[in-house]
Amino acid sequence: MDYPRKAADRVEYGERTKQISLFGQGCALHLALPNELREISLDKADFRSILRAFQVRLIFFNPQGEVVLEWIETLTTELL
Asked: How many CB atoms lie within 10 A of CB 12?
């Protein structure tokens, strides 16, 4: 078990949650990620929890062609 990494993940999760709750009230939040990170990011339960809790819209794009490949308005269980 990589305990220091897990502890760092929890601290980062807490900080992101605090920032979103302070500054994201009443705002539509969008997160754009390169398509290569799709499976890696959606595999993380903490990441999915934040997306759901704060209703973050997720955009996956091709950075080379600067093209939006997928726009997810609401994270649903079909993506899990």
From this structure: 11
